[in-house]
Design goal:
Blueprint: H1 3-27, H2 33-55, H3 64-78, H4 81-87, H5 93-100, H6 103-114, H7 124-139, H8 149-174, H9 180-201, H10 213-241, H11 243-264, H12 271-287, H13 289-303
Helix pairs in contact: 1-5, 1-10, 1-11, 2-4, 2-9, 2-10, 3-8, 3-9, 4-8, 5-8, 5-11, 6-8, 7-12, 10-11
């Protein structure tokens, strides 16, 4: 792939992921959160499974490893997103995106525990600590106000980060050979079904849904772009430039979300949110220092 196409792909993924958080925030005005995320996931699953059915022979789980990956992906990787939708009722889209930027660090922590080939060493522990310090700055837990809606919302989004990261590692641990679009599609079916079950259990009802052009647009956008196309583009990007460069999307996404939330949703940007984000980025840089040094050395070699 040419450098120009890679750059466009990187920018496309960044914009799609960055706009997803404001789109979720806008959609929550029309949908209860669990019904919202379930419908989004069902829609994205239909698109991914249709693509797999048309383009792939390996479109359904065949082995125990496949079923383990679908189960882990559905319960944790996809199911965990529901915490984020619930949490975004109480916080801005920019803050949610910043908290989600902790994902690579939390994923590294779970990988250390569950994947023997990915053990943490030395300063890796400091990077994990920095990541959690950054989130603490953003959440600012007060023992006397733990039930404050804003604090609850931030903690729910952080829970989503942890559950999704665990799902990512468990899917990798399964070592399935199933193509990603088909695997993700079946995991979305399972995750959406779990979310729908919880929606019914907590009393969410279709009668509370307000169908408007904007409501339909958010479902279509989150299903087609953030749910299906964005994922495929991200995986293509990862295969092209590697995991380290692809993960930089995670740290540009909050910038897009913060700006769009400020411009279109009248969300305020707090200085402590930016400080917490900077600490999280520092933790990521420390965790990936070897890879970043290697990429920097490679870049210097190209420009000499």
């Amino acid at each position: 792939m040419s450098r120009a196409r890679t750059t466009l792909l990187f920018l496309g993924v960044t914009l799609i992921f960055g706009t997803a958080f404001p789109a979720v925030k806008a959609g929550l005005a029309f949908f209860p959160p669990l019904l919202f995320v379930a419908v989004r996931n069902y829609f994205a699953a239909v698109l991914l499974l249709a693509y797999a059915g048309l383009r792939m022979d390996y479109r359904v789980p065949r082995t125990r490893r496949d079923w383990a990956a679908v189960l882990a992906g559905g319960v944790f990787l996809i199911g965990g997103v529901g915490f984020g939708f619930v949490g975004q009722q109480f916080i801005t889209s920019g803050v949610a995106a910043v908290i989600f930027s902790l994902s690579p660090i939390v994923t590294g922590l779970f990988a250390w525990a569950l994947l023997p080939d990915e053990r943490l060493v030395g300063r890796d522990y400091l990077s994990i600590l920095l990541g959690f310090v950054g989130v603490s700055i953003i959440v600012r837990p007060d023992p006397g106000a733990l039930l404050d809606p804003t604090v609850v919302g931030k903690l729910l989004v952080f829970t989503a980060v942890a559950v999704v990261a665990l799902g990512t590692v468990l899917v990798r641990r399964s070592r399935t050979a199933m193509p990603v679009p088909a695997l993700t599609g079946w995991a979305m079916v399972l995750g959406a079904t779990i979310q729908m079950g919880f929606a019914v259990a907590v009393g969410e009802s279709l009668t509370s849904v307000r169908i408007t052009p904007l409501a339909v647009a958010t479902i279509l956008y989150l299903g087609v772009f953030a749910g299906a196309l964005g994922l495929v583009w991200y995986l293509v990007l990862m295969g092209t430039v590697g995991a380290v460069k692809a993960n930089l999307v995670t740290y540009l996404t909050p910038v897009v979300s913060l700006v769009l939330g400020w411009a279109f949703l009248d969300e305020q940007i707090q200085p402590l949110t930016l400080l917490g984000f900077a600490v999280i980025v520092a933790g990521f840089a420390l965790l990936q220092r070897r890879e970043l040094y290697a990429e920097l050395a490679r870049y210097r070699g190209l420009v000499r």
